[in-house]
Here is the input.
Amino acid sequence: MSQSVLISNIRLYEFIREKCNTAIVKQKSTSSNVIDVKWVQTVAGGHGRGDATNQLDQPHGLFIDDDQTMIIADRENHRIIQWRMGDINGQVVAGSHGPGNQLHQLNEPTDVLIDKETDTLIICDRKNRRVIRWSRRSGTTHGEILLNNIHGYGLAMDDQGYLYISDTEHHEVRRYKIGDKSETVVAGGHGEGNGLNQLNVPIYLFVDRQQAVYVSDNNNHRVMKWNKGAKEGIVVAGGHDQGNALTSLSHPLGVFVDALDTVYVADCGNHRIICWPKGSKQGTVIVGGNGEGEGANQLKNPMGLSFDRHGNLYVADCKNNRVQRLCIE
Here is the structure.
C-alpha cells in the first residue's frame, strides 16, 4: 500500500456515504499511537461555493458554542454566519452587505469568537484593519469598533477576559483588555524571522488557562508556545522546514490544545489535520493527508479548527466550502 493511503498506521477499510453527507469510518490499527476517527460529517455548507444560507465561501476561523452552535467567519461572503447543529441553512448574524467599511459591513473577516461576559461576537475584520464587537441580541444591525489600524488575523480570549490578536504585519501577538487601548506584546515583536523570539506571519491562536499563547507561525511552518512573560517561544509542532513528513508542517493555520497539552493543527498546505502529543518529535494525522479533495477522508486547505464540549473536532475545510465534524477517540 502506498504511503499516501496510510494515515498514521490507521488503515481506512470502509467509507460509507449516508444521507446528510455523513461518512461512517471503520478503522483498524496496528499501532497504539493512533487517533481513531469514528465518523466524519459535513455540518455546515457542502453545497458548493456561494452566498446562499446553505453555502459558504472560503470559511476561515470558527467558534463552537456550548450547545454546538457554530459561529463561522465566512470570509469571501464578508459575513459571520451561525449554524445550529442539524440545520441545513445557517443564519447571518453579522455583515453580508458586501465588502465595505461601514459599521454594518465586513471585509474578509478571518476569525470570530463569543465574549460570554457581554454576549457579543468579537470579529477580526481583516481587510478593514479593525476588530469589531457585534451584539448577539436579535435585531442588531451594526457593530462597534474595538480596535483600529491592526492587520489582524486570529483571535483568542482567556479566562480573565483579555483579548489576543495576531498581527501579520508586525509579526507579533498582542494582548488587550477590552475597553483599554493599551497593549502588551506577548509573542514575537522582534521583526520577521525564524529565531525563537521571532515569528513570520502569525495566524491563529490558542490561549490556555495559564495564559500561555500557542500560535501558528505560518511562514516558519511551525507552532510556537509562548509562556506568560516569556522572551522566547518553544516549538511544539513542526519546525523542521516545510514538508509533508510527520515531523513537518506546511503553512499551519488553525490550532487547538487539549487538557493533556496535545496540539492539534490545521496543516493547510498538506491538506490534513495533525496532532502532536506533548513532547513528541512527530505528529499523528487525524484526517486528510490523502491529497486535496472533497472525499470524507480528504480536505482542501483546512483553516480554523475547534472542539465542542463533547470532544468532537470541527474543521473549516476552506476550499471545499464546508465545515467537517469528526468524532475521534
